Amino acid sequence: MILINENYLALKGSYLFSEMAKRINAHGGDIIKLGIGDVTRPLPPAVVDAMKEAVDDMATAQGFHGYGPEQGYAWLREAIAANDYAGLGIEADEIFVSDGAKCDTGNIQELFSPMCDVAVLDPVYPVYVDTNVMAGRAGDYDESKNAYSNITYLPCSADNGFKPAVPQKNVDIIYLCYPNNPTGTVLTKEELTEWVNYAKKSGALILFDAAYEAFIREDNVPHSIYEIEGAKEVAIEFRSFSKTAGFTGTRCAFTVVPKALMGADSDGELHSLNAMWNRRHSTKFNGVPYITQKGALACYSDEGKAQIKETIGFYLDNAKIIREGLKSIGIDCWGGVNSPYVWLKTPGGMPSWDFFDKLLDAGVAGTPGAGFGSAGEGYFRLTAFNTKENTLKAMEKVSSLKL
Ligand code: PLP
């Protein structure tokens, strides 16, 4: 009999979205869904046109594209460098195009020793923890704490403004996600500088997930960690076209691994993480389809940029409706300014699954904070990914709740 990777046995059940679906189905009726973080608006017309042209290319002998470069076509990597990293000194060969920030944030840990200590924010996007469990880095799961013994959790609550201090002890790998899923909060330049300085001092690596970068509207919020001096020596950044341009079903993202970034082997010899990720990417990944990359490229055209700005503005208007609706009935909330997510404190400290049921009775589905980690208990996430009409209707229903 084949022996299995027993690390998989340490994974706790992926309970959150299946339990939500179960309760929504059992409830029945007309429920407005402000729960799952998937976009609802169509692809920008500039992207659709570019993809149609690319399909036509593929129908001709001259325009046909077979296997492409695993790292992404140079024209897309150059457009990313010129637009997303203008003035930051990131070069095209430091950018790796992929089929998702989920895959990249999940796969990147393969480059590091099983002995590395990992720190995550709590509440957290579950992929960071689960992929380290699969790799055997997380230790044992303690049901009573909803935590793994070898993971350092950095609790985020209203008390610290959802911005935990840097760890007291040294850790090797720190996952930061800003704008944050699930709390919708951001770091200022000064706050992110503290993390970069910590990493420089302690030798840690920051894995910076900026999947929601396109939602940033406030001035002092960095769009990239490479805006911070010295970050190229201590950070990998993940971005995605998913939430930026409606690519959740189309699949295109990218990861930046600067050439200045080094890791040590057990003899203390230094190795380039860029070269290692390049090797990993070309061994295990065969590139994003030509048609999809042409669509992604169109995001950087004038038309594409304007259409994306309009769509993100639309979601942020919904987020404002949610924030103002909650505030009008005395519910404390955060996020929704530079993010599609609004994070709220459940009234009277109600457990977040009880609040889920209460909201469901009113005809609205959201996501219980406890599903993102133990520090999410007593909180709840609503998303701006719906129509304006449904968002307004949902907030009317929430307002009618007897809290
Ligand atoms: N990172 C965060 C924080 C997310 O919330 C998500 C999706 O919800 C992803 C990454 C996944 O992005 P992608 O669709 O590019 O895989």
How is this structure best summarized?
35% of the residues lie in helices and 16% in strands. With 403 residues, the chain is α/β, with parallel strands linked by helices.
Protein architecture, described:
The protein has 403 residues and is an alpha/beta fold. It folds into two domains: 7-42 and 303-399, Aspartate Aminotransferase, domain 1 (Alpha-Beta Complex); 49-301, Aspartate Aminotransferase, domain 2. Helices cover 35% and strands 16% of the residues. It has a seven-stranded mixed sheet, with helices on both faces. A hairpin with a 4-residue loop joins strand 4 and strand 5. The chain starts with 15 loop residues before the first helix and ends with a helix. Bound molecules: pyridoxal-5'-phosphate. Residues 37, 100-102, 105, 125, 177, 181, 209, 211, 240, 242, 248, 253 line the site of pyridoxal-5'-phosphate. The site of pyridoxal-5'-phosphate (PLP) has 14 residues, from helix 4.
Supply database-style keywords.
Aspartate Aminotransferase, domain 1, 403 residues, seven-stranded mixed sheet, alpha/beta, four-stranded antiparallel sheet, Aspartate Aminotransferase, domain 2, binds pyridoxal-5'-phosphate
